[in-house]
Amino acid sequence: MKPIVTAEEMYEIDQYTIRNVGISGESLMESAGLVIAQRLKAEIPINEKVAVLVGKGNNGGDGLVIGRLLQGYGYQVDVWIISSSQDLKGEAKGALLHYENAGYVTRSYQDEKDLFHALLPRYDYVIDALLGIGIKGGPRTPYKEIIDQLNHLQSMVYSIDLPSGIEADGGVVETAVKADKTFTIQAPKTGAYTFPSANYYGQVETVDIGIPNISIEKSSRHKREWEERDVERTFPSRTRSSHKGSYGRGGVVGGSTTMIGAPILSSGAALRTGVGLLTIYVPESIRSVVASHITEGMYRGLQEENGYFLGDISFDDVKLDAIAVGPGMGRTEGGTKVVRSVLQQDSTVIVDADGLTHLKKCWDLLQYRKAPTIITPHPGEMSMLMDMTVDEVEHNRFEVSRDLAIKHNLYVVLKGPFTIVTTPTGEQFVNTTGNPGLAKGGTGDTLIGMILGFVLQHKSVQEALNNAVYMHGKVADLLLEKGHSMVDIVATDLIKHLPKALNQLLQHKK
Questions:
Q1: Domain match, 212 and 245 both
Q2: pTM above 0.90, yes or no
Q3: Are 449 and 407 a contacting pair, CB within 8 Å?
Q4: Is 147 annotated as a binding residue?
Q5: Which of 186, 221, 256 is the last residue of a domain?
Q6: pLDDT tens digits for 487-503?
Q7: d(CA 355, CA 501)
Q8: 93-97 average pLDDT score
Q9: Known binder of ligand: residue 57?
Q10: Where does AMP bind (predicted)?
């Protein structure tokens, strides 16, 4: 699992490495420059012209090391110092000394301002080492003007650690470099997973500069990127002696006359992800329609009024290990009664869609629950649960998810690009699979079904959630490989292609 850090955590990691491990800041800068220069060497043709734009902080110091090494490799490189060279301090000042001692000459933005603006469009590649993780608020003159010009170039732009102008922890973006690619140093920063800042990173590649694991473990706050190897490591295997009871009894509660498809999608995804036995609870008037699409489930048609749930549910006739409630159920008063009934069961409960609106009226029940409770809101639903705007949620996805999870002892799956899974103890995991083809009605219904299926088969709820989210996005990515576009993907495509994605995973796991 790849660690994800805030600006403060990255500072702590650096300081621990310097003070406790004994690796100097100068050595870390040299290592960062070396690794990135080698990556650039593999990507930039030797005959292309390169500009390195250097700020006065450590980010600029990284740029000076990169510029020195690229010239040593034989590249045509101009290193532009934007501030006065006298403003460089600490490790950056040392990097400038090494650069000059190697026989190379920098160019001064202050002395050649007009020439700089004339030459910049003529470079084939531009390396952005202007502003690092210490920036707060938007960039000032002359950085703002330079960034504006950079964003209108035809040149390939690489940013070092993060695009200049972005705050490491995300938030509002005033002016920032729109990088084609960002080499983030040692660990990605939280802003790379929140919007709008994530839009500026381009392709992100994390470069390991040799900071030991102990530094990261001492300083990071339990945020990780869930990777394919984590899925392979934690995905359960089936034994030859197993039977349908080995893989859990699940329930799907949802649907209404206006949203018949939602429980069909959730149930289909649950069955395709391996649930042993599935019981589907829908209003009586739509039971036959749902049953005509899902023949492998058992059914309970419930009391209704005008096609919506009327009241409580009795589960006396069956013991369910996990229940998914919410898809397509509507927002009538009867729905609230249904959600309250579900929350009073000694089962793992997954709440999604309209169920989340009802959940907000049932916070009091959560303190009595002993079995896990999982919610799967998108940003709009999270804003409703937290009484804040969608923008406030999007700018603070990690903090908002963590606060809600800890407060109500929940597993929170905050959906969207870079879905975040948060445990009741505040551990957080980020998913990187998926594409905008998932931005369509019904895909969330398939996800809750996959979560239900995986929760019933994994021993760890956290691993089940991360694996379900990962595979949900993986299927969407597989669809693009198979000829679909981001425009035409629909939820039923996900269910249809789940077998292929699961087969690939299980083959790699062997």
A1: no
A2: yes
A3: no
A4: no
A5: 221
A6: 999 999 999 999 999 99
A7: 29
A8: 96
A9: no
A10: 415-419, 444
**Which residues contact residue 137 at a Cβ distance below 8 angstroms, ignoring those fewer than 6 apart?**
174
Is 164 flagged in the annotation as binding? yes
How confident is the model over 340-365, as pLDDT tens digits? 999 999 999 999 999 999 999 999 99
State the Cα–Cα distance between residues 196 and 301, nearest whole angstrom. 45
Q: In whole angstroms, what is the distance from residue 37 CA to residue 54 CA?
A: 15
Q: How far, in Å, are 336, 347, 471 from residue 249 at the CA level?
A: 24, 10, 21
61 carries a ligand binding annotation: yes
Say if residue 436 is in the same domain as residue 473.
yes
Residues 77, 169, single domain; the answer is: yes
Residue 220: is its pLDDT beyond 70? no
- Structural domain range at position 462: 228-509
Q: 159: which strand partners? A: 128, 182
- Residue 404 sits in the same domain as residue 339: yes
The pLDDT value given to residue 510: 66
Q: Give residues with Cβ within 8 angstroms of 449, minimum separation 6.
A: 252, 265, 266, 267, 268, 269, 270, 271, 272, 273, 324
Residue 209 in marked binding region = no
Is 116 part of any known ligand binding site?
Answer: no
415 annotated to a ligand binding site = yes
The pLDDT of residue 137 is 86
Coil/strand/helix, residue 119: helix
Q: Prior bond to 142 cis, omega within 30?
A: yes
Q: What is the pLDDT of residue 237?
A: 87
134 annotated to bind ligand: yes
Structure confidence at residue 141 as a pLDDT band (50, 70, 90): very high
Same domain flag for 184 and 241: no
Two structure tokens written together for 177: 């470099």
Q: Are residues 238 and 337 in the same domain?
A: yes
Question: Which contacts of 384-391 are long-range, i.e. CB under 8 A and separated by 24 or more positions?
Answer: 384/356, 384/357, 384/360, 385/356, 385/359, 385/360
Q: Which residues contact 94 (CB under 8 A, 6 or more apart)?
A: 26, 29, 61
* Predicted pLDDT of residue 240: 84
Whether 213 and 241 map to the same domain: the answer is: no
Does 59 count as an annotated binding residue? Answer: yes
Instruction: Work out the mean pLDDT of the chain and round it to a whole number.
Output: 95
Write the DSSP string, 371-397. S-EEE---HHHHHHHHTS-HHHHHHTH
Q: Is 58 one of the annotated binding-site residues?
A: yes
Residue 312 marked as a ligand binder: no
| Counted domains in the chain | 2
Please indicate if the annotation marks 470 as binding a ligand: no
445 is in an annotated binding site: yes
